[in-house]
Structure of Orotate phosphoribosyltransferase:
Amino acid sequence: MIFNKETAEKTAELLLQINAIKLNPSNPFKWASGWNSPIYCDNRLTLSFPAIRNYIRDEFSKQIEEIYGKPDVIAGVATGAIGIGILVAEELGLPFVYVRPEPKKHGRQNQVEGFLQKGQNVVVVEDLISTGNSSLLAVEALKEAGANVKGMLAIFSYGFDVAEENFKNANVNLNTLSNYEHLLELAVEKQYITEEEQKTLQEWRKSPSTWGV
């Protein structure tokens, strides 16, 4: 869900400007999942651009307070959202924890790293939503650690139906700064892509697992 249309458009433009999002319908990327994709998104690049990372930090912070009020803790999903999560926690003056994909194999075998008390209200920060599976595993780990997870905010979502269904089934509220729909509109308007390429990109999202096979 997009909370602010103006933020969605500006975030999309910033991600395109620094090639955090690359659109290449004629020469698709290959994802780790094996899917062929005309888009590649690496939001960790935003950390290398102070003005952009600060913009994302500020928008996250504003939306968290407007949607949830001030939580007790900010949690980042490892590894992509650790950096921006720390910036958001610092801006809000809150503690920060991060969630590993799985518990450590040694030492204290933590999956949630940092100080977290049972019953604390937590908002989760994520960099990218595809199917939502890894993000929701982080939410589950926080709940198992005793946290009251209020919801999640992410920089960008591909807007897959399966992700929407996964978050709905898990009863987790998700908001994103921008998404695929706003990205494509902006990309055509700013001439990053043609209208014909936009149609190709729209077709991909309907069935990403079989597109280009």
